[in-house]
Amino acid sequence: MYFAILMKQSNPEHGITVYERNGPDDTFGWGVVFSGKTLANLRRADEQSHAAITSAFAAWDNVDVVHDDEKISIHGNSFSGIARLQLLKLLQQRCEQLGVELLFRTEITDIDSLRGSGDLLIAADGVNSATRKHYSRQFIPTLDVRPNRYIWYGTNKLFHGLTLTFRESEAGVFAAHSYKFDRTTSTFIIECDQETWETAGFAAMSDAGTREYLEKVFAKDLAGQPLLSNNSKWINFLLVKNEKWFFENVVMLGDALHTAHFSIGSGTKLALEDAIALGQCFDKTDSVTGALAEFELTRKPVIEEYQAAAYESMRWFENARQYLSLSSLELAFVLMTRSGRVDYEDLKKRDPGFIAAYEEQTAGAGGRING
User: What is the pLDDT of residues 150-182, one digit of tens each?
Assistant: First the structure.
């Protein structure tokens, strides 16, 4: 939808149709997080939709790390959250304002015919992309199923910051990624390794049984609030890469094209920035082939760098149990620097108080901890 908005805004004469398999009020998951940098990109691309989106945001500057019942806060970060459904509704409204045709509950069964009926086919059909599968010889995808399991819940317990919580049970180690996205609700993603998942017996548990088990693990954090399910299921993260990003007049965006672990950012953020980058390529040329070639040439290195950082973050969480012997301050420092995108000097600028406390504690222990 966002690419349709940008193209229609650029030239109202474009005839653009969006085919959506779900209904206008259907969504999976809970909230979406954007960084300050992403918001700046959205503002430059389309001020009207940016204004509508940011008016609904819950914003914060802190990352909280909870370990051994101690919370360490690191300030100086820039994040905002919005309900996924609300974001979709705002983009739908903007599409309607601009004259983009939206066809809901429409499943594409003949991709070849659709490709031949227009000048350009954008496939943003998700991590299990039918387009990617259909044209696998052209896109040459690499799919890597990762060992950790995760499940995406909501809760009415508000987490006023991006909160990373570690709890140990008889089964093993659980990590929760949580943040509020409106005045009443937070996202609460729970992740664990395969050994913990099997020992806990989740394979044989019902949805209600799974939520009850996890509510006990995170009882101190949820403060009596239940976990809310939205077709929530345990899944393994799928790392998606494609050697080729387009062929002829077909190009993919978002999770269909690439994925990055949720511990470092949202797939929605990357998809929106894909749309902006592709729109900029069409600003430079009327040639579909030329624009798509420019998109692959300029955007692919950006995504590869982002995926490399996300891979380090993902691997950290896959091995989280080995870090839980650290103190809370040490764990927080290692967490903040795990991907290589943030270093000691960055943290010192963002939150001098956090670094001062960290240095004081580690001074007598032989120096800084490296993740």
Answer: 999 999 999 999 999 999 999 999 999 999 998
Q: What is the DSSP letter of 140?
A: -
For the chain, how are helix, strand and coil distributed in percent, rounded to 5? 45, 25, 35
* Residues 206, 211: Cα–Cα separation, whole Å: 9
> 2-59+76-144+240-318 has which fold?
FAD/NAD(P)-binding domain (3.50.50)
Asked whether 371 and 338 are in contact (CB, 8 A), the reply is yes
Structure tokens at 13: 């004469």
Contact between 256 and 231 under an 8 Å Cβ cutoff? The reply is: no
- For the chain, list residues with pLDDT below 50: none
Asked if residue 33 lies in contact with residue 79, where contact means CB atoms within 8 angstroms, the answer is: yes
**The tokens 């009443």 sit on which residue?**
184
Q: Where are the domains of the chain?
A: 2-59+76-144+240-318
- Per the confidence metrics, is the pTM higher than 0.90? yes
Tokens at 255, concatenated:
């999770």
**Is the Cβ–Cβ distance between 311 and 241 less than 8 Å?**
no
User: 247 burial class (0-12, 13-18, 19+ CB within 10 angstroms)?
Assistant: middle
Structure tokens at 191: 């992740």
Give Cβ neighbours of residue 131 (< 8 Å, ≥ 6 apart): 111, 123, 125, 250, 252, 256
